[in-house]
Prior knowledge:
Layout: E1 4-14, E2 34-38, E3 57-66, H1 67-70, H2 72-78, H3 82-98, E4 104-114, H4 117-126, H5 128-138, E5 141-150, H6 152-156, H7 167-200, E6 205-208, H8 210-213, E7 221-230, H9 234-250, E8 253-261
Antiparallel strand pairs: 1-3, 1-4, 2-3, 5-7, 5-8, 6-7
Helix pairs in contact: 7-9
Amino acid sequence: MSATLTYVYCLVRSARRPSIAGVPPGLPLSEPVRLVEVPDAAPARRTAPKAKTPAARTWLVVSTVPQAAYAEEVLEQEMQRLEWIGERALAHEAVVEHFLRADAVLPMQLFTLFMTDERAAAHVTRDRRRIDRILSKIAGQVEWGLRLTLGAEAQAAPARRARVASGADYLARKRDVRDAVRDRMKKARLDATRIYRTIAAEATAAERRTDIDRTVPGSRVVLDAAFLVPAGRAAAFRAVVRRQTGPLTRAGVAAALTGPWPPYNFI
């Protein structure tokens, strides 16, 4: 049994060999991050040269890790420890983000492991058509996240009234507060939907995640969305978001724009 494993952070498509100068150290106990080139599935057909633009090539970004620390049985045990997972998730993400300026970056899931470099490359080769479609979709693109949250103060605003005089008044006040909060949430969600559609029109693709803003009881999140945006349009995209969310922030809805990220939600 091999004493080491190949850990894969991401797949990079680039016309030039990606630079690993200054790349973060990678997972704890791993050897330095390195590149493994994945050969083309088949030799290119000879045709008359049309241009001198170098052809895009594909690399796996990997590091060697000890099997004793990352074997399947070890992962099953350590996955119960959030601190252990969090440290490695941050290291994984830092390496992927180092390559954001490449033509296309396909991030791998946390703890993507192979017995050898050759097996990792062979896996990509077998799935080359699907991977090429994904790389074509995300080439030159980065992900931005936008979350809109109704502030607690905006929800509590109806409660600022005179003191209640009786139990009936108290119950009526509770009902009014509940109804006012519900109405505020309904309006905030409608505004968020309108804003999402407007911003999505400025992006290559958009994804609205409804698992938080609709299914978590008591959630004040009215929009949780991801946008795929050309890397060169970052400033213009941020300006659109500021312009669209400005009126909502003045009405008590907090806007948080994060990015640029690897396109996790679009692969």
